[in-house]
Amino acid sequence: MKAAIYRRTGPAAEVLAVEDVDVPDPGPGEVRVRITGSGVNPTDWKTRAGLTGRDPETFQIPHQDGVGVVDAVGEGVDAVAAGERVWLQLAAFGNRYGTAAEYSVLPAERAMPLPADAPDDLGACLGVPAVTAAHCLLVRGDGREALRDATVLVAGGAGAVGHYAIELAKHAGARVVTTVSSEEKGELARAAGADLVVNYREDGAVDRVREFAGRVDRVVEVALGANLELDLAVAGAGTVIAVYANEPDDPVIPTRRFMVANATISYVLLYGVPAPELAAASAWVSDAARAGALTPLPVTRYALDDIVAAHEAVENGAVGKVVVVP
Questions:
Q1: How do the domains of the chain map onto residue ranges?
Q2: Is 59 within 8 Å of 22 (Cβ atoms)?
Q3: I need a labelling partner for 322 at 20 to 30 A (CA). Which of 45, 101, 126, 272 fits?
Q4: Model confidence pLDDT, tens digit, residues 47-61
Q5: What is the C-alpha end-to-end distance of the chain, expressed in Å?
Q6: What angle do CA 258, 264, 269 make, to 5 degrees?
Q7: At 99, phi and psi to the nearest 5?
Q8: 143: pLDDT confidence band, cut at 50, 70 and 90?
Q9: How far apart are CA 165 and CA 176, in angstroms?
């Protein structure tokens, strides 16, 4: 099969290549998926660049997310069947066969059924962004029912996680306010269903959020350091700020102000989420997809042979979703 691989970490143009490798067979508890679209996330280029780990022992096929059709199942697998369309998550986590290839082999629990009427673009966009958004909204452990009539602030509503945080929160019955940096991004956030979109670069942004929200129940936060003042302005007893992205410099946390507000910061890194919580977030994403509540991000497609350009696009902050098509 054709696959994008790297044997050492570094710049995309120096380490990524498309090669022919043997089609892997699924082992016990695994499935093999014929990939029809491979979603690229920031975590993919950061891992390839060496920012989050070490060089692979032999080779690594990148990309955690994707969409495709189950081609074969290993011993003991009964959750999905051959011929079933699936969306994938964490395919390359502890596994050399990520989705940037014609086939991927991965644990069966990381392959989730995709509704028959859902386009491939949606399946390729889910995975890390949607499951992260779901976990950020569920992180207090109250369940999705607790979001009904709650107020949610989504920082960066035009990003991949922000997009699905808006759609999932609205699907659960919450009111949603989101911040963006431009009118173009504001249109994306409105299309996702946000009740109020605020350009945080404009004067009076904090006042507009406070006027709408008063106190928020949940913050889905992409940049804690930059947004601390806004988050604290709308935080109160029971507010949970779920932080899913890091920053070049660790922010200084004003502990006393958080104590006075009785607010909580919860850090979210999908790779370390306990299995039951990960399963709950994944199940919610699947339920929402079946209900037609989730939509694809704007997709830019690259051929597998253009894997370097695809990685460089994501590394340079491409809006929407970059999808590699084998």
A1: 2-126+294-325, 130-271
A2: no
A3: 272
A4: 999 998 889 999 999
A5: 10
A6: 130
A7: -95, 0
A8: confident
A9: 9
Return all residues near 100 (Cβ < 8 A) that are at least 6 apart.
3, 4, 38, 61, 62, 63, 304, 307, 324, 326
In the CATH scheme, what is the code of domain 130-271? 3.40.50.720
pLDDT of residue 30: 98
Is the predicted pLDDT of residue 249 greater than 90, yes or no? Answer: no
Would you give the DSSP letter of residue 188? H
CA separation for the pair 294, 299 (Å, rounded): 14
- Tell me the two tokens of residue 261: 């507000």
What is this structure's pTM?
Answer: 0.96
78-87, 94-103, 212-221, 240-249 — which one is most confidently predicted on average? 94-103
Q: How many CA atoms lie within 13 A of 316 on its CB side?
A: 8
Q: DSSP string spanning 93-148?
A: TT-SB-SSBSEEEEEGGGEEE--TTS-HHHHHH-SHHHHHHHHHHHTTSS-GGGGT
Cα separation values, 177 from 49, 63, 66, 199, 204, Å = 34, 31, 29, 11, 15
Pairing type for strands 30-40 and 66-73 reads: antiparallel
Query: Phi-psi bin for 274: left (phi > 0), alpha (psi -120 to 50), beta?
Result: beta
Is domain 2-126+294-325 annotated with CATH 3.40.50.2300?
no
The tally of CA atoms less than 13 A away on the side-chain side of residue 286 is 17
**Distance between CA 71 and CA 83 in Å, rounded?**
6
pLDDT tens sequence across 154-191: 999 999 999 999 999 999 999 999 999 999 999 999 99
Asked if the domains at 2-126+294-325 and 130-271 fall in one CATH topology, the answer is no
Task: Report residue 236: phi and psi, to 5°.
Answer: -160, -170
Question: 197 phi and psi, to 5 degrees?
Answer: -120, 125
